[in-house]
Specification:
By secondary structure, the protein is of the alpha/beta class. It contains 8 helices and 4 strands; from the N terminus they run H-H-E-H-E-H-H-E-H-E-H-H. A 4-stranded parallel beta sheet has the order 1-2-3-4. Helix 3 links the parallel strand 1 and strand 2. The chain is globular, with a radius of gyration of 20 Å.
Length: 271
């Protein structure tokens, strides 16, 4: 799941590597108002809840609603994944997040918190125009799209997610944060507590890492630079048959000194 003002293209390289390396099926999609997806008829309809419904519809179309799914999300996409897991916890088994939103910021000087004043003001002005009969001015497509995008992020930085992510218990989280991320700050402690068993207990299944000298944009721009496909436990358990087979091939290569043939995926996957 991509971030705000991004598209599915940002995950394309990573998804291709996951397919080729592990044989995993991958679903890439554009949120409404992003990429090749259309805008809703009303600017006020573009909300995180609508994006969750969009994700659910795509999963049901593929028949994955009864299968544990790994959710990978960038920024806004992380919040959509968390909101989805809150509604359908049995449909989610793991999370992989880059510069994620979904946590309240401790400082009121945070850029995301400050931006909510601007976005809420713009959306309120649009509603006032509608109430006084000047709503047609919002039908001009550049204005409509701008207001719709601002309406989407009025609830940043947590987008309506719960403070206590108790429904994440037993689900592995892999979280990469930027050291100098002033939009969604590197709240290592909060992410380690996410899904923990009991108050103040870390989720031992999680991996939270801070990338030094990285900003929000640099974290989100090209996810492939982090080579998340090389962290197999982020995508499947170690007892995954293909994971075991790959380790066996590596052992043969190291001990025999011969180049092993490229292992074939046991799963016929589509991207």
């Amino acid at each position: 799941l991509h971030g705000w003002c991004q598209s599915h293209d940002c995950w394309l390289k990573t998804a291709t590597r996951l397919r080729d390396r592990y044989g995993h099926d991958s679903l890439l999609m554009d949120f409404y108002g992003h990429g090749r997806s259309p805008y809703p008829s009303k600017y006020s309809d573009l909300t995180p809840k609508l994006l969750v419904a969009q994700v659910r519809a795509a999963i049901e179309t593929l028949g994955w609603q009864h299968t544990p799914v790994v959710f990978a999300g960038i920024s806004l996409g992380a919040s959509v994944a968390l909101l989805y897991a809150e509604l359908y916890p049995e449909n989610v088994c793991r999370f992989v997040f880059l510069a994620p939103s979904g946590r309240k910021e401790d400082s009121s000087f945070n850029f995301a918190v400050a931006s909510t004043y601007v976005t809420n003001f713009a959306v309120r002005c649009a509603k006032i125009l509608e109430n006084i009969g000047l709503g047609k001015s919002l039908e001009f497509w550049p204005v409509k799209r701008m207001i719709a995008q601002l309406n989407l992020i009025t609830s940043t930085p947590n987008y309506g997610t719960k403070d206590e992510l108790d429904y994440l218990q037993g689900k592995r989280l892999t979280v990469l944060l930027g050291q100098f991320d002033f939009i969604h700050s590197a709240q290592v402690h909060k992410w380690k507590l996410a899904g923990g068993y009991g108050i103040g207990r870390y989720n031992e299944d999680s991996h939270v890492e801070v990338k030094p000298y990285e900003f929000h944009a640099s974290m989100c721009y090209d996810p492939d630079r982090w080579r998340l496909d090389l962290i197999p436990e982020a995508w499947h358990p170690k007892e995954n048959p293909y994971f075991a087979y790959r380790n066996e091939q590596m052992y043969i290569r190291e001990t025999a000194g011969k180049k092993a043939s490229k292992p074939k995926s046991p799963i016929m996957s589509k991207l």
